[in-house]
Amino acid sequence: TGMITTDKLSKTFSNAGTQQHVLKNLDLEIERGSFTVIMGPSGAGKSTLLYALSGMDRPTLGTVEFDGETISGYSEDKLAKFRRRHCGFMFQQIHLLDSLSVMDNVMAVGLLTGDRRTVKERGDKLFDLVGLSVADRRKFPGMLSGGEAARVALVRGLIAEPGVLFADEPTGQLNSEFSRIVLDLLAAVNATGQTVVMVTHDIRSAAYGSRILYLRDGTIQGELSLADLPQGDA
Ligand code: ADP
Ligand code: ADP
């Protein structure tokens, strides 16, 4: 059985008096340890789905279960606690705090879930993993390249040892060289057993997934296999 399961998940927005049905009776199962990619055209509802899966937003109808718990019924407070304990996030907009060093940006999130010494040790391991030196950790965000900032965002997303890392267009701002580095890192992190759910509209990024779901018209239209995707340079 899945780690995250949706049952007839629906999300409707009211925009200027009209109802927009963005997700429609969507059934989905995400396996523990998988690298699940949600692909689809712009406006398909990918981010909306990611928000529902990660407890950032609640469905209009239907349910989301996480390890058998129906999180879609949680209060705002309970959802916030759920996110802190179980979810890591990496977004296209990285939003590091400019007044804090790289290390302190990571610590600020880590300390929500652990004591300073434990979190610092975890952070150092993750910084080693993504190839940011001790000198890099002391830098302030304004001194980082886009690729470095993305790596900091990845460390921050993992610092609380989340059950799932949710990545929404994590390479959207990066050139192809940095994109490849970040996607390789996501694959490496997944290879350690970390469950990853990534939203992208880019087919070459999608190729990094172990499972690629295609979202259109508010439902999962099917799965793409790697054979359908262009090979080689991502
Ligand atoms: P994608 O990530 O696939 O590009 P989104 O999930 O961001 O798509 O958006 C899908 C549709 O839902 C868009 O038409 C968008 O305008 C609408 N939408 C998303 N969030 C909101 C919101 N908070 N209020 C109203 N409409 C929204
Ligand atoms: P509070 O409950 O005190 O408002 P939040 O949970 O909103 O704290 O977290 C504070 C900041 O840390 C926010 O800017 C949020 O984006 C970030 N944050 C919280 N949890 C995570 C996480 N698991 N991964 C990445 N960033 C996170």
Structural class: alpha/beta
Content of β-strand: 25-35%
Largest sheet geometry = 6 strands, mixed
Overall pLDDT confidence = 93
Order of helices and strands: EEEHEEHEHHHHEHEHEE
- Tally of alpha and pi helices: 8
Q: For the CA atoms, what is the radius of gyration?
A: 18 Å
Give the helix proportion (percent range): 25-40%
Low-confidence runs (pLDDT<50, min 5 residues)?
A: none
Strand order of the largest sheet: 6-7-8-3-9-10
Bound molecule types: adenosine-5'-diphosphate
Structural topology:
Blueprint: E1 4-15, E2 18-30, E3 35-39, H1 46-53, E4 61-66, E5 69-70, H2 76-86, E6 87-91, H3 102-110, H4 116-130, H5 134-138, H6 146-158, E7 164-168, H7 176-191, E8 195-200, H8 203-206, E9 211-216, E10 219-224
Parallel strand pairs: 3-8, 3-9, 6-7, 7-8
Antiparallel strand pairs: 1-2, 1-4, 4-5, 9-10
Helix pairs in contact: 3-4, 3-6, 4-6, 6-7
This protein binds adenosine-5'-diphosphate (ADP) (2 copies).
The site of one adenosine-5'-diphosphate (ADP) has 12 residues, from strand 1, strand 2 and helix 1.
